[in-house]
Automatic annotation (TrEMBL):
This is SUI1 family translation initiation factor. Gene3D superfamilies: SUI1-like domain. The keyword Protein biosynthesis applies. SUPFAM superfamilies: eIF1-like. It comes from Christiangramia forsetii (strain DSM 17595 / CGMCC 1.15422 / KT0803) (Gramella forsetii). Keywords: Initiation factor, Protein biosynthesis, Translation regulation. InterPro entries: DENR/SUI1_TIF, SUI1, SUI1_arc_bac, SUI1_dom_sf. Residues 1-40 are annotated as: Disordered. One of its GO terms (molecular function) is mRNA binding. GO terms for biological process: formation of translation preinitiation complex; regulation of translation; translation reinitiation. The keyword Protein biosynthesis applies. Belongs to the SUI1 family. Residues 20-29 have a biased composition (Acidic residues).
Length: 118
């Protein structure tokens, strides 16, 4: 059974205001997502075929940054490899076993990449 909402704190920090001069920055927690530079990133290149009907994929894990930057990086990798894929749950999934090529591309872009698994 769901917990009953008791007060404004339980609504997730919403601030309701009818003031036209309202400045939202006064009430934020300062949780700005500081993006790391590529050399500060510790990425892992995985190879997998589990749960995909026997199809092989290359998975890049460990990216820390905004979702927009992750999507842009995934798009660039898919384009350079000439294959499809997706970006979800903080991971970049590239169709096929392109681990060596992806690692070479990421190192050229300045990322620290580690090969994980066989």
């Amino acid at each position: 059974m769901a917990k009953k909402k008791l007060g404004l704190e339980d609504l997730g920090g919403f601030v309701f205001s009818t003031n036209d001069d309202f400045d939202e920055s006064e009430y934020t927690d300062g949780e700005s997502q500081n993006d790391l530079t590529p050399k500060d990133q510790q990425l892992e290149a995985h190879f997998s075929n589990k749960g995909r009907g026997g199809k092989t994929v290359t998975i890049i894990k460990g990216y820390e940054g905004s979702d927009e930057d992750l999507i842009a990086l995934g798009k660039m990798l898919k384009k350079k490899c000439g294959v499809g894929g997706s970006t979800k749950d903080g991971e970049i999934i590239i169709q096929g076993d392109h681990r060596e090529k992806v690692m070479k591309i990421l190192k050229k872009e300045g990322y620290n990449v580690k090969r994980v698994g066989g």
